[in-house]
Amino acid sequence: MSALAPNYKRKNLSFVRGKGSFLITASGKKYLDFVQGIAVNSFGHANKKLINAINKQSKKLWHVSNAFKIPEGEKLAGRLVKKTFAESVIFQNSGAEATEAAIKVARRYFYSIGKENKNRIICIKNSFHGRTIAAIHASGSKKMTQGFGPKIPGFDHFDFGDHKKLKKLINKNTAAIMIETVMGEGGIKVIPSWCIKAIRKLCNQKGILLILDEVQCGIGRSGKFFAFEYAKVKPDIVPIAKGIGGGFPIGAVLMTKKVAKAMIPGTHGSTFGGNPLAMAVGNAVLDQINNNLLNNVNKMSNYFITNLEKLKKKYPKLIKEVRGVGLLIGLQLFDDQTFFIKKLMENKLLTIRAAENVVRILPPLNVKKSEIDIALKVINKVCNELN
Hints:
The radius of gyration is 21 Å and the shape is globular. The strands form five sheets. A four-stranded mixed beta sheet has the order 1-2-3-15. Strands 6-5-7-10 form a four-stranded parallel beta sheet, sandwiched between helices. A four-stranded antiparallel beta sheet has the order 13-14-17-16, with helices on one face. Strand 2 and strand 3 form a beta hairpin. 47% of the residues are buried. It has two domains: 49-288, Aspartate Aminotransferase, domain 2, CATH 3.40.640; 291-386, Alpha-Beta Complex (Aspartate Aminotransferase, domain 1). Helix 2 (48-58) packs antiparallel against helix 10. By secondary structure, the protein is α/β, with parallel strands linked by helices. The protein is built from 13 helices and 17 strands.
């Protein structure tokens, strides 16, 4: 019996090593990993440049308090600022930490300008922003918050696509609207560019902040560095994690100078956030996020989605919809996806579930066409067996 708490429903399957898109068991069985730690391993397993970065930094310095300057963090923050809308960065260790910090930044900004009652955050109902206590209440999900009372106040919710409700929710106490640019856990729902533009305009009109959660869809996974770039908008705050570490725990909050000014010493901190080892890995990740990689994401995405659409036509009673952008792909089934995912796994293809009967497919950003062909062959086989 495991000494681990039962908060995960783990499959009876484990691995001893990985290479690129594949995971390998102790007996030598190879599985095509299209989960990749849930959009974490940007370049697959055992990426040489990340290994080299860890090895090199580990021989010099692992950890030092944020009471001192950390050159590796200064470098990574500077590169993120140069590459994005951001003018300031706070480093964390995970996506949940980053979204919690984003909430704090929004509220602290209004406090700093004498509007401390402007502290409510509007989110999409049944969204996902992490599993910490504030993050689960930001989601508005009854399933996620059940048993974790009392309810954390300060959040309002609207249903996906209900713009009338969104507008009605905004009042004198609203500080920000926080949405995932692509809803990952929620079923791979891509927020349309026109919608993001409209929300940005609404925030400007009402004098509130726009927080775009790019924890899962950011850092090249959408085919652009950030998914919101398709809408050509400038958010105020963006939490990131997952892909920026390539498998190493890193999170961050990117923000404009306007809101960053409120985060004076003592307002936020993280013991391990921004440590030299993590920052060295983050810099090695950015070294590899270039136009060639993004072109591969878009090329492989077009190929994968086009062929999944063909399977949808071939199995119209099984596949309801193909969703996604870049290499954040969802295959929505008419029925519960649990058995389908199990059958894929039996055929050595690893995927993971999302809401609305969606099979979530998350290849590494450097995935090869031959590997996608393997996945398509397996998906077709399983569809044929279940049709």
